[in-house]
Design goal:
With 304 residues, the protein is α/β, with parallel strands linked by helices. It is built from eight helices and 15 strands. Strands 3-6-9-12-14-15 form a six-stranded mixed beta sheet. The chain has a five-stranded parallel beta sheet with strand order 1-4-7-10-13. A four-stranded parallel beta sheet has the order 2-5-8-11, with no helix packed on it. A hairpin with a 2-residue loop joins strand 14 and strand 15. The chain starts with a helix and ends in a 15-residue tail after the last strand.
Amino acid sequence: MTTRAITQALLESYAQGGGINHLDGANLPSQDRVNDLARDLMHLLFPGFFEDTGLTQADAPVWLEKLLGKIEGRLATEMEKSLRYAGHADAKTEAQRTTLQFLSTLPEVRRLVQTDVAAAYSGDPAARSTDEIILAYPCVLAISLQRLAHVLYALQVPLLPRMLTEYAHERTGIDIHPGAHIGSHFFIDHGTGVVIGETATIGTHVKIYQGVTLGAKSFETDGKNNPVKGVKRHPDIEDHVTIYAHATILGGDTRVGAHSVVGANVWLRESVPAHSVAYYKETSLVIRPRKAHEILVDGADWAI
């Protein structure tokens, strides 16, 4: 088959549609530009950590003004594309307004991210410094970008929030939907294979390990067997909960109570009361109250 014949065959397949063409549609956000934006935002959240050369306190004002201008321009451009795709009547003006709204939240996002770094340091005996955590722990990138994407999600910006979190997913293997509500002092140890769904809520001082899934039991469907959007599908995790490796917690009506522990490999579709332990004994799921003397191997901070 010649190149000309292949070209003609592909053009014919484009003409047939099929849901994977976007010809003659609104210009979509660029994945490369969004990835650049993600990297720039990480520089902004953690000044001095990811620069090619050292950054001093004296240099910070000029550096920050330049970086903020770069982020503002790039974000407004990609946001305008997103809003135009969604059919917004005045996408340019709305993009500029929403970009400034987003940027105004950055000090608060930095405050939350600082608690996540602190949680990683106190929750991992292998950590030698917070600098090591920021430079080398995958949870920092995944959680930080999710917190930023969550702001855009709350501002009802289409496309961009998922594109930001997918950059982190690709880099770390941690998949957190931008819609998930996450409290302060959140730590994901190791991280690979973690999945957190859109309608999950996570309280403060929660620690989870690799392979944990906060997912849905099933999808509600409409009369045409299409998934119903926007319903509560994912579990709620209260404060001071630890979830060990490869546990799977499913369902929008499932709640893990405060100060509870979910053991490794547990498959959980029912709620767990506060101050409980859920684990398997042979092949049976056991949910029992925590004993007063029990503490987690991660340290006394997790004792009750």
